[in-house]
Amino acid sequence: MKVGILFGGPSREREISFAGGRTVYDNLDRTLFEPVPLFVDSHRNIILLDWHLVYKGGIRNFYPPPATLPPSAHHFEIYLESLGELSSEQQDELIRRVGSKVELEELPGLIDIAFLALHGAYGEDGEIQQQLAELNIPYTGSGVRACQIGADKSMLKELMVVRDFVRPRLMDLYREEWLQGKPADYYQKAIEKVGFPMSVRPANQGPSIGASTIEEDQGLEGFDLAVNRAFFREILPVYEWRDRSRFERSEYIRLLTDIRDGLGFPIDVTFQGALQTLYHPEGLLDYLDKKSVDAPVGEAFIVESHYLEEKVLIEASTQGKAFSCVVIQKEDKEPIALPPTEIIRDSSIFDYSFRYMLGLSQKVTPIELEAPQIQAIRDECERLFTELGFKVYARIDGIFSKEGQVVFTGLKTTSAMLPSSFLFHQAAEIGLNSPQFLSYILHTSLQERLAEDPDNGHYQGLLAQLNEKMEAARAAASRKRRIGILFGGNSFERHLSVQTGRNVYEKLASSTSYHPLPIFLNQKGEEYELYQLPLNLMLTDNADEIRERAIAFQPHPVVQAIRRECAGLRARYGSPETIFEPRKRSNDELAKWVDGVFIALHGRPGEDGTVQQELEKRGIPYNGSGPASSAVTINKYQTLQTLKRNGFTVANQLVMQKEAFEQNPEDFYKRVENQLPYPFVAKPVDDGSSSAVKIIKSRDQLEAFTRLLFRPPGEEGREARRQLRLKAGEEIPRKQEILFENLVGASGARQFMEITIGLLTHYQDSGAVRYELFEPSEILSTGEIPTLEDKFFAGEEQHVTPARFSSQPEEYQAITSQVKQQVERAARILNIQGYARIDAFVRVFSDNSAEAIIIEANSLPALTPAAVLFQQAAINGYTPFEYIDKIIAFGFERQARKAPAPPVEEKEVRLADPLWVERAGKAPAAKPEIIEKADSSYGLPQPEPATGDIKTPFQPQPFWQYLLEWAKGIMIEAGRFLSSAVFLRNFGAIAGVLLLFFLLATWFLRIYTHHGESLQVPSYLGMDLRDAERKARRQDFKLAVIDSFFDSSQIPNTIYQQDPKPLQRAKRGRTIYVSKYRITPDSAILPTMVSAGYNYTQYAIKLKRLDIKATVKERVFDSKQEENSILYFYHKGRK
Description:
single chain, alpha+beta, Rossmann fold, Dna Ligase, domain 1, six-stranded antiparallel β-sheet
C-alpha cells in the first residue's frame, strides 16, 4: 500500500514538519507500506521529492537548490521566499532540481492514502483535508471541521467556554488596534482583564512560535516587547545598530532569518516614513548599514514580517503543572487518553528548544499527581476530544492548576512526529513502538474515513488489503534476526547515544529482517551493567533519567490500568514479546537471547574497545572496529601521533596532566604558553568531537578551562564557566588530562575548510577489505566550534554536502579524489573496520593539490535522524536502513570468518617516514627500508601486504626513540650552520656596520650640542596649569597645551605629560608642550548590552572604555536569569 507522506509546508513549523515527515518515512513498517515522500514547499507546490533529500538536516540545505542561490558574502541560509516573487516557470525549474511536481489531480494515481505530517496553515486548518476528500484519497487524523476548529485558537477558546471547559482569562489584541493605540493603554487593559503572570502568543501559530510570558516586574517595556514579538515585529534604534560590530550585525540578520524564533523573510522595514520590502538577508544588512550612516541618532528602524499576524492572544498564565496528553481511539471508536506527560523546565514558556532539542527538558510520565487528579486530566481530555469532534488522535496541552482545575492551553490535530515526541513517548507506555503506532494511525484513519463514507468501495478495498497484510506480517515476525541495541553510558555524549540507539532501533523495527531489543548500559566505576528496557524508557530523552528509572523502577498503577484498557490495541498492532519493566542482563545472558549487538555508545566504554572485548569473548557479532583499533581512536593524541609518524601533517599537540597542575599551576600554564601561541584549542583527550572543545585566547581563559576540567567532585566552577561564557546547562566533564592543540590554518592554500567524511568497509571474495569513502561534507558552525546542535539536531545541522571544493565537476572530482585517498590511508593505518566518520581540515592549493589534516577518527559515529552520515550514504545510494544493514552484515561476516585482522586488498597503501614526505597526502613510493621503520598504531595489528613483494616484518618504533633521533638531527644541523663560513662572515660584517654607526652618531652629537647656552627643564607634572605657567615665565620658558582629555580619577587642569621631559636641557625661550586633564567630560551614548550578553562584568568593561563608572546598587536573586545579569538601570535616582 502506497502511503504519501505530506510534509514541509508554508508554516513557521515547516522544519519540524520536515523532520517529522522523515521519521514517518523511515518508520513505516515495510512489510505493510511503501512510503512516498511528498514535500510541500512554501508556495504550496507538492513535490515528489528525490528520496535522498529526505535525509538533509533541514529544508534550507536542499531547497532552494544550492546552484540557484544568489551569492551571499555572509553565507546566509534562506528559504524559497527569499528568492522574491517567482513565476510558475521559475518555480517549476527549481522543483525539477529536487524531484518532480505533482498536481493535485495526479495524486490518486500516485498514492493510496495520505499521511499528514504538515503543521499550521495548509496542514492543520482543514484545507488539505478538504482537497484530499474531494480526490477520494483517505488521509490520517481528524476531519475537515475538527481541523478548522483546532487551528483557530480564538474560536477554540470560545467553544471551550460554551462546552463548559475551564479557560484562562483571555484578551484579544488586533494588529491595527496595537499600531494605532498606545501600548500603555493596552498594558493597563491587560492587567485589568488578565493579570500577572500573562502569556502573549499569536492566534494562528504553533504553541511555541512567537510566545512569551510576562511577569509584573517586567513592566510596560516587557509587555511592549512581547506583543511586538507575537506580531513578528521589532524596533531597532539607529544608535544600537551603529554600536554593533560587523559580526554582531551579521548574526542579528542570521537570527532574523530563522522562522521559528525570528521574523523570517521577506521583511518590511519602515524608516523615516518610507516602507521597503526586502527579500534576502544580504539586502537587509546592506539597507541597515547604508541608512544608519547619516541618520539622526534618535531614529529607529521598524522591522516586521511581510506575512502579517493579525491577532494576538493575551491570557493568564496559570500556575501549576504543565502536561501534554495524547488521546486516541480504541477499537470500539471510544476515546482513551494515554498517560499524560509532565514537562519540567525552567522557563514559563515551553518553547521550541525545550520541545524539540534532546536533553533540555525532562518529561515525566505519568504526571506526578495523585491517581484521582491524573484521572481528572484524562477525563477532561477525552471529553474535549469528543465534544469538538476529533478523530483517530490528537495532542492536548494544558496545566493542572494549584486550585485543582484542568486548564487547556493548546491543541494539535497533527502532533509532531519526531522520535522523542509526546505521540511516540505515550504510545510506548501502552507497548507500541513507532512503526506499530504509525500502523495504528493509518489503519484507524482508514476505518474513520470509511465510517464517514460507508459506501465508498475504494476505501473498503484498501481496508481489506491492509488487514490481510497485517495478518501475514504477524506470522513472519518470528523469523527475524534479533539485534541488541546497546546505548546510554555515562559519557558527555550519553544523551546523543540515546538518540542514536533509538534511531537505529526504529530503523530495524520497521524492517523485514530484524527484531531489535533496546539495552541500556550503566557504567559503575571500571565495570558496567546492562538493562533490557521497555519501550517507554527507551523513548525517554534524558540518559540520566533512564538510568535512575532502570535502577529503581517502580510501576505506576495508573499506567498499568491504561495498559489493561489498551490490551486490544496491543494485541492487534504490538508484539507478544513486549515488556513493561527493565530487566538486568549479564554479558553471558546476552549471547543467549540476541544474535548480534549494535553498539550505539559514544565515548567510553563503547568506543575504547572495552565492550568489544567482552563481545568477542562470547562470539557475539558487533558493529564497528575491533578492540585494538578502538583503544587508539578513542584517544585524540594517540590517533594523531600515530598518523604523524606515518607521514601525515597534524596539529601540534600537548597533553598536560592534572597532577602537574596541582603541583605547580604557574609552571603548568607557562609550559602550555611556551609551546603554543594564543589562540589555541583545548579539549579532553578521550571524549566526543564536540565535548568541551574551546578556543583559548588568553591566560584568563586558559586558567578558567583548566580549573573547570580539573575541578574536584561536587564543585561546579561557576566563575570559570562565566569566564568562558558557557551556555546555561552546557556540560563540561571532569578529566585527568587536557589536550592542547595549535589552530590549524590555511598556510598559503587558496581554500581552507573543515570537513567530515564517512566510510563503510566490505569484504571481498578474497577476504580483503575494501574501503568505500563517501562524499565529504563541509562543516559550518554557529560559533567557533561546531556544537552537538550543529551536527545532529533536526533543523540545526550545519553541513554542506558535498563540500564546496569547486563548482567545476572535473576540478571537484580531482580534489575530492585526493582527500578520499588520504582519509582511506589514515583509516587503514588505524585499522578502522565496519564504518566510521573522520574529521579533517583540508587545504586546497593553487595547483589543485589537496592536503588533509586529520582532526580525529570517530569509530562509532552518531546515527541520529539528522546525522550527516545518512546524507553522505544517500549520495552513494544507501537509505538509512540499508546503510545500517551493511554495517551489521560486516560484523556478522567478520565473526563468521574468525579473523580479527583481515588482509587488505591488493592496492596496498604503504607507509612512509614523516620526514620524507614533501607534502602530506603525496607519499612517494615507499622503499623497503622505510617501511621497516614506519610506526604501527600503538601496537595495533597492521594489515599484511597483499602483493607479497616485501618480506621484512613490520617493526614498530617507540615514540621516545623517534623523538630522540629527531632532536639529535636538529642539534647537528644547528651546529653545522653556526660553524659555517657563510654564517661567520655575515655575522662579522653586521657587527662592524653597527659599531661604525655608533661612533659616527656620537661624534655628530658632540659637534651639534652647545650645553653652555641651555637650561635644565623643570618638572611641571602634577601641577595646575596656571601655577605651571607662572613658574615657566620666571625661567624664561613658554607653555603650550597640545592635548587634553577627561579622566574621572584625576584632578582637572592637572598636567600629566610634557615635552621636553623634566631634567632635560633646552635653550632659553623654548616652548614646553604639555598635556592636561580636562575639566568637563565628553557626553556619550551608552553602549548596547547585546554583545555583553546582559552580563554586568562584561558591560562594565564596555563602560570603562568610555570612562564611565558603573556601580551595583542592589543584588537580587532571580532563578530565571544567569548570575551577574543586569536587571535594571538607575540614573539620577530613577529605576
